[in-house]
Write a structure and sequence with these properties.
The complex is a heterotrimer. Chain A is an alpha+beta fold. Chain A has 2 domains: 158 residues, Uridine Diphospho-n-acetylenolpyruvylglucosamine Reductase, domain 3 (2-Layer Sandwich); 92 residues, CO dehydrogenase flavoprotein, C-terminal domain (Enolase-like, domain 1). Helices cover 40% and strands 25% of the residues of chain A. In chain A, helix 5 packs antiparallel against helix 8. Chain A is globular and about 55 Å long. Chain B is of the alpha+beta class. Among the domains of chain B are: 196 residues, Aldehyde Oxidoreductase, domain 3 (Alpha-Beta Complex); 157 residues, Aldehyde Oxidoreductase, domain 4 (2-Layer Sandwich), CATH 3.30.365.10; 101 residues, Aldehyde oxidase/xanthine dehydrogenase, molybdopterin binding domain (Aldehyde Oxidoreductase, domain 4). In chain B, helix 15 links the parallel strand 23 and strand 24. In chain B, helix 8 packs parallel to helix 9. Chain C has a single domain, classed as Alpha-D-Glucose-1,6-Bisphosphate, Chain A, domain 4 (2-Layer Sandwich). Chain C is 31% helix and 36% strand. Chain C is built from 5 helices and 7 strands. The chains are: A alpha+beta, B alpha+beta, C alpha+beta. Chains in contact: A-B, A-C, B-C. At the B-C interface, loops of B face strand 7 and helix 3 of C.
Chain lengths: 259, 696, 192
């Protein structure tokens, strides 16, 4: 890891980090991205782990999507993440793509960023000079853009424990299986608390704050879903889709919370 | 032991599945130069200047050629259509003076590696003055094809008809998307004075003829070799200008030149399928007889005419009466030039469009008359006693039993149960529909040859003018020869693809290989047996053949998301005698999947400036296995009288019947909501808009 | 593609109008932007490096003031760029209209943008958001210039980092800042 951050410090924005390559390689093939250098972090084994410590989930940035999908720890305590991972592309993509890569690529239609946003995750970045933790609101800036500086490497994602009687669900709609989502919603609900995050509804994962408040105040599912769709600023079909998927995710999450 | 009719697994699969196939990209040559093209970014523009200085001095670059450098090379031959007026619009090898679609090749870079060639192509300084693009096939400012036919008293029929049913259709362009893209490896053999071109193509004959025409080179001095081909679906029938450019470069530079296109090039420049707008009407009597058909077809031909470009529109026009004995018909076809890549045959090649039009009209007529759509069809089928049957438009259907196909399809569908389910579902507020589509597949025709040779060791070698690109000819032809000669298929070796070795032929397209290539083999084998010669070459000719079939579908539209679920799809196909049922079913299923793609997701989109919006698989959606419903297939075999096998063709039926059946099922579902039918693809957005258009 | 932006500047119309006609100052108002006159009256030359996350497109081109309607206070710019490596380009006709209001001057920017090449073919619908963000930034840049708040020393290099985004985040809030798009225009001095 020292070598990786020192290379990033040296080459700054001329370099791009290569992990699973599932998002970056297509951009290189299209010649839409032409970094001077690629810093290949695939062999930094110490960045691939899934651990629970003091109730908090620690995911190493280099953890493959497939590991997240299969992890019994994640399935037991943060099933939303396993469910989100299963929606990512196809198994082949998940065997190479990394959690850190998906998050750092920040495609607004990506499932993992939305799920992590709904869970209130923290994003740990390291550079030669410093380490820091970014909250969700600070981390995602816009399409394909995070607050990570050119010399920073995303090293870990932490997820706080979920209180008892919490339920979560993620639902999406894509034209064909494994395709980019046309719309989607990740929901975490608990006693007097709700996180509703829309994906493919704006330049970043979108927290539907007003909808969350309405839910906590006892509004019914349809009303909350409509509110979330309104907050997105989408119109027409995309808006209706956002409302429907939010409705489904809320219904599933509430059922799971009471189970 | 006979082999014809048995489901033998494919002999060629072993090499394909173990990675030992040799595709164009696998071929190596000493001293080869790699080719990359600079392509137009504009749909329509004056090409003012192409400055190749920076590119020519880039690392690894050996030469850069422009249209001016290849001024002596002619265009590819321009397509033609029987009884039609056609403009001369052959595709130039490299653009000169004007560019006519995004992706049109403008310059050719030859370098020591593909990467170096691509890097250098980016440095080519091409300057343009943009012009207004023409994008709609209804824009008649530049007509390339004009055709019309009128038979019977069309006007009288429309005047006295009790009911008229009309509909307009927009059938979008499709991308063939073969797994292996296009490519060529050209080498000049100076000792023999032969230009040798390995080409990923559907047969050696057409590349030979087209190259000879464009280069002005004696065909005897050209040799085409087809390696293993990873799919084509019609899109590799005519060679592109890139192949001509690469061949010309090999001749000029005296070094072999290799071009392997990448996926982006395939999306931009390979010719596309479909692309038709149609206005059609049916005159119907109160007792449910189809009296006459009138149609105006507007074909989106793209910027140039490949030899194959006019075929689809003409086929659509000729097949518009479908499976029905409609006594009078009038069809006009206008093929417009547009500033998009040229169109050409793609699995179905005009027949899916015809089926969609006539089958939608028939179900609209049934709804208009308040009659069961299957009853209406039966009342109007060409009856089984009427064959050979000449349609109003002039083709002679050789044989068929359309009633039996329909019966079989309805049996497979379980029509009574599906109707009961539909009742129940509608009572629950769900949006469901049932629809059907008859298939008429024009296939065979012209001629093919075969040479059969007995080897000293006792085996037999069959040289065929047909050329496989995934159909399994090595297996089916071996079965045919084995039966004729009383040996085992393992003793038969099938050879194809090298123009210097195979007998002359027409090619592999229009589902013709078994009927034509296979029959040539039958005749050659029979002559071999009769004469006792050790080698016989035969040319087999035949008029057109007509496969048929009935497809049916049950669908549901999810109200909240607009998503279309095809619940069940059935296919009852009559391809004449079935040589290998396993392979035949494979063909049906493969074509069904492509037909479903056309219904659910596929559409090549161009914006108002002619820029392609679906230039990668991120935007052009292909279905995955997860989207394919259960498909039940069955075969009816009404032999053709025109060849010793009694065979017709089966390769494209799935792509013809599926869109018609699904379109009718969607229309049935929407009709229950008081809404008209839609054009494909039936995407969730379109269905949702239709369902929600009334509100607000 | 047609894009519309509006911003209300707390300055009188004449002041805003005179800035609008001053191309170098308008361009300099954008972070990391400098221009050089082309030699031909009213024409300016530069490089345009547009970056969105890992995606980077580099254009070389010209910007010129085309139509000026002194009576109606409408000024049009024509910006034309070609990809430095590749066969695409972008052409934009940017029509700026000033309307006096109670709070100052409303600037309405209507852009007709045409993009060819890779960015158009492979953008997966990103182009609309990208262009919208760009024009939004441009409108805000004009506001900054009118209010005389340009930075003295502009960075000569493209930079998309937290340092640039924090002021935007604080000023406009996360939703608006996210809507601005992750761009920075760096028009660097070029020799031709």
């Amino acid at each position: 890891m020292e070598e990786a951050v020192s290379l990033l410090a040296r080459y700054g924005d001329e370099a791009k980090v290569l992990a699973g390559g599932q998002s970056l390689i297509p951009l290189l093939n299209f010649r839409l991205a032409r970094p001077e250098r690629l810093v290949d972090v695939n062999r930094i084994d110490e960045l691939a782990y899934i651990r629970r410590r003091d109730g908090v989930l620690h995911i190493g940035a280099l953890t493959r999507m497939a590991s997240l999908e299969r992890s019994p720890l994640v399935a037991g305590r943060w099933p939303l993440l396993a469910e989100a991972a299963r929606l990512v592309g196809h198994p082949q993509i998940r065997s190479r793509g990394t959690v850190g890569g998906s998050v750092a690529h920040a495609d607004p239609a990506a499932e993992l960023p939305a799920a992590l946003a709904a869970l209130g995750a923290g994003f740990h970045a390291a550079s030669q000079r410093k380490s820091r933790v970014l909250a969700v609101e600070e981390f995602f800036i816009t399409h394909l853009t995070t607050a990570l500086e050119p010399e920073e490497l995303l090293v870990e994602i932490t997820v706080p424990p979920l209180p008892p009687r919490t339920g979560a669900a993620i639902v999406e709609h894509a034209r064909v299986h494994g395709d980019f989502a046309l719309g989607g919603c990740a929901v975490v609900v608990g006693p007097r608390k709700a996180s509703i995050v829309l994906l493919a509804a704006g330049p970043t994962p979108l927290r539907a704050g007003a909808a969350e408040e309405a839910f906590v105040n006892g509004a019914d599912v349809d009303e909350v879903a409509e509110l979330a769709a309104s907050e997105s600023g989408l119109s027409g079909y995309r808006r209706a889709l956002a409302a429907e998927l939010t409705r489904r995710a809320l219904t599933m999450a509430t059922e799971r919370a009471s189970a | 032991m006979t082999y014809v009719g048995r489901p033998l697994p494919r002999a060629e699969d072993v090499r394909f599945l173990t990675g030992r196939a040799r595709y164009l990209a696998d071929l190596e040559e000493d001293g080869v130069l790699h080719a990359a093209f600079a392509r137009s970014p504009h749909a329509h523009a004056r090409l003012v200047e192409v400055d190749t200085e920076a590119a020519a001095s880039a690392p690894g670059v050996v030469a850069v050629l422009t249209g001016a450098d290849l001024a002596g090379v002619g265009t590819l031959p321009s397509g033609s259509v029987e009884d039609g007026v056609v403009a001369d619009a052959g595709h130039p090898v490299l653009a000169r003076g004007v560019v006519r679609y995004v992706g049109e090749p403008v310059a050719l870079v030859l370098a020591e590696s593909r990467a170096a060639a691509e890097d250098a192509a980016d440095l080519i300084d091409d300057r343009y003055e943009p012009l207004e693009p023409v994008l709609s096939p209804r824009d008649e400012s530049n007509i390339l094809v004009r055709w019309s036919r009128s038979r019977g008293d069309v006007e009288g029929a429309f005047a006295k008809a009790d009911r008229l049913v009309s509909c307009s259709f927009t059938i979008p362009r499709l991308v063939a998307a073969p797994l292996e893209g296009r490519g060529a490896l050209a080498r000049y053999d100076a000792a023999e004075d032969v230009l040798v071109v390995h080409c990923s193509a559907q047969d050696p004959h057409r590349p030979l003829a087209h190259l000879s025409h464009a280069l002005g080179r004696d065909p005897e001095r050209i040799r085409i070799v087809i390696p293993d081909v990873g799919g084509a679906f019609g899109s590799k029938g005519a060679i592109g200008p890139e192949v001509v450019a690469v061949a010309a470069a090999a001749l000029r530079l005296g070094r072999p030149v290799k071009w392997v296109e990448d996926r982006l090039e395939n999306f931009l420049a390979a010719y596309q399928g479909r692309g038709l707008e149609a206005d059609a009407e049916l005159a119907v009597s109160a007792d449910g007889r189809l009296l006459a058909l009138r149609a105006h077809l507007h074909a989106d031909l793209g910027a140039y005419l490949y030899p194959t470009t006019p075929v689809s529109g003409h086929t659509t026009a000729m097949l518009l009466t479908g499976a029905y004995a409609i006594p009078a018909a009038e069809v006009t076809l206008v093929g417009a030039a547009t500033n998009k890549p040229p169109t050409g045959p793609y699995r179905g090649a005009g027949r899916p469009e015809a089926a969609l039009v006539i089958e939608r009209l028939v179900e609209l007529a049934a709804r208009e008359l308040g009659v069961d759509p299957f009853e209406l069809r039966r009342r109007n089928f060409v009856p089984r006693e009427a064959f050979p049957y000449e349609t109003a438009l002039g083709w002679v259907y050789d044989s068929g039993d359309y009633e039996r196909c329909l019966d079989r399809a309805l049996e497979l569908l379980g029509i009574e149960d599906r109707r009961a389910e539909r009742e129940k579902a509608r009572a629950e507020g769900r949006i469901v529909g049932i629809g059907a589509g008859m298939v008429i597949e024009r296939c065979g025709g012209l001629w093919e040859s075969a040479r059969v040779q007995v080897e000293p060791g006792g085996g037999v070698v069959v040289w065929t003018g047909s050329s496989p690109h995934g159909q399994g000819h090595e297996t089916t032809f071996a079965q045919i020869a084995a039966d004729e000669l009383g040996i085992a298929p393992d003793d038969v070796t099938v050879r194809w693809g090298d123009s210097h070795e195979v007998p002359p032929g027409i090619g592999t397209f229009a589902s013709r290989s078994v009927a034509m290539g296979g029959s040539a083999i039958v005749q050659a084998c029979r002559e071999l047996r009769e004469t006792g010669a050790s080698s016989v070459e035969v040319r087999f000719e035949s008029p057109l053949l007509f496969s048929s079939g009935a497809y049916a579908a049950a669908v549901e539209i999810e109200r909240a998301t607009g998503r279309l679920h095809v619940l069940r799809l059935v296919a009852a196909d009559d391809p004449g005698k079935v040589i290998n049922p396993l392979l035949a079913e494979g063909q049906v299923l493969g074509a069904v999947v492509q037909g479903l793609g056309e219904c659910l997701a596929e559409e090549a989109v161009y914006d108002e400036e002619g820029q392609p919006r679906t230039a990668s698989f991120a935007d052009y959606k292909l279905l995955t296995a997860a989207e394919i419903p259960s498909v039940a297939t069955a075969f009816v075999e009404t032999p053709s009288p025109h060849n010793p096998l009694g065979a017709k063709g089966v390769g494209e039926a799935g792509a013809i019947g599926t869109p018609a059946a699904v379109a009718n099922a969607v229309a049935d579902a929407l009709a229950a909501e008081g809404l008209p039918g839609l054009d494909p693809p039936f995407t969730e957005e379109r269905l949702w808009q239709a369902l929600n258009a009334r509100e607000g | 593609m047609k894009i519309r932006n509006e911003v209300t500047v707390p300055a009188p119309l004449e002041q805003t109008w005179s800035l609008l006609l001053d191309v170098p100052r308008v361009v300099r108002a954008l972070p990391g932007a400098t221009v050089e006159p082309d030699g031909v009256e009213g024409v300016y030359r530069g490089d345009l490096k547009v970056r969105l996350g890992p995606v980077a497109m580099e254009y070389e081109g010209t910007a010129r003031l085309e139509d000026v309607d002194e009576d109606e206070h409408v000024a049009s710019f024509l910006v034309e760029g070609r990809e430095r490596r590749g066969h695409g380009g972008a052409t934009a006709t940017i029509v700026n209209r000033l309307v006096p209001t109670e709070e100052g001057t409303r600037l309405v920017v209507e852009t007709d943008l045409s993009v060819t090449g890779r960015a158009a073919q492979l953008g997966r619908g990103l182009m609309e958001d990208v262009a919208a963000g760009l024009l939004d930034r441009f409108a805000q840049g004009l506001e900054t210039a009118v209010l005389g708040r340009e930075e003295e020393v502009a960075p000569s290099e493209l930079d998309v980092g937290a340092a640039v985004w924090e002021p935007l985040l604080r000023r406009y809030g996360p939703i608006a800042a996210a809507g601005v798009g992750g761009f920075l225009l760096g028009l660097a001095v070029r020799r031709r």
